[in-house]
Amino acid sequence: MMRLRYSTAVLMACLLIACATRQPGTPVTPGFNLFSQSQDIELGSEAAAQVRRQSDVVQDSRLQAYISNIGTRLASQPGTGNFPYQFTLLNDNSINAFALPGGPVFVNTGLLKATQNEAQLAGVLAHEIAHVALRHGTSQVSKANVVQIPAVLASAAIGQQTLLGQLAQVGINVGVGSLLLSYSREAEREADALGARLMAQAGYNPVEMARFFEILEAQGGRRAPEFLSSHPSPGNRLRLIQQEIRFIPQRQYTADTGQFKQMQQLAAQLPPPNPQRRLQSRAAPRVSPTRPGTPSADFQHVQTSRYELVYPSNWKAFADAESAMLAVAPPEGLLPNQQGLTTLAYGAIVNYYFPRRKGVDLEGATNELVARLSAANPAIRIATRQPGKITVDGCSAIVTHLSSSSPYGGIERDVLVTVERPEGVFYFLFAAPEDGFDSLQPVYEKMLTSIRFRG
Ligand SMILES: [Zn+2]
Asked: Domain 299-453's class?
């Protein structure tokens, strides 16, 4: 799988740019993301398979080829990232289209019928492609501070649980209006801007995208098209897109295939959509809680996009070199809780937290994070806190001791170390059952002192 590499400097620049509202005509680049591109692709393809099972996929190959040709033409323009784009027409009368992380794009027949010409249809596809290229879905999830994600990714990596089922349980659902698919107005502005550019490059008049959104907005009121609930208008959409277009070199728009009317007729002749089938969520397999053995005295090294550290060599690092989150644990350290959701009962989670309150200090951010952890696991209690007692790679850190109930039975002890970093609040959470915890102290201390931030 091809991967794009961004230097830390570029990432930091994007992070700084993201704070200010973009000026029309400036390049649009992906924002901060805890996931790697390959995790986007994995997540999206699993979610797409589920969408296909749950939906009435149009069986007419002429219609599918038509959507796919326009989509592929747009997706092969510069600026779309290195994603395996796929375009699917769904037999569904609601006016909607959506994209999943990593490339799958779905368009409803209702939307095809609502557009006035091929360029408007291309406009919607270009807008969806832009959401994929800018990684808006996983960027949104990254900022939602879902503390269970590293454990969930780890459990999927060892095939213990399905990624989607697990993500659904932590509030990341696949479907319209869910976290993966509801974008901020800023994300919409960016998708419009990049989408307009892709349209022009591919040979479609970008103003048609704005015109179609105007048509949708005119239909507002209580029966507002579904598209607008997942793609909220940034306000003045037409004017913003027109401003953007002024920065795009003038060219002839010659891409129209001339098949649009015929395809609309084919869509009108399709059988009525099947009532949606609801997918049964798969029950979590029973995993008997075997306590992991003693951590090895040998350590090995793991590196993510943001930091590196060492961990016992008989543990496993569930990491991706381009992602910023990590779980390190013996395989028996990942256990389903009573809700069937994987939690890390023995091992460490390393990730970033983004405080809700602006300008909050490290202690305030730590309090927020502990509240998050408690929401995920109501049994968590704060035992003690030692602010400023340690440093992690030269940065001052807060150590918070927590306790909760262990999935192995008895009490679990957790050490949470929070570090203030320019890119966000870095945290290291080490968990193990209380009995025998003291003998693990040298292990987590060695892991902590080995942490080096990159860039
Ligand atoms: Zn959108």
From this structure: alpha beta
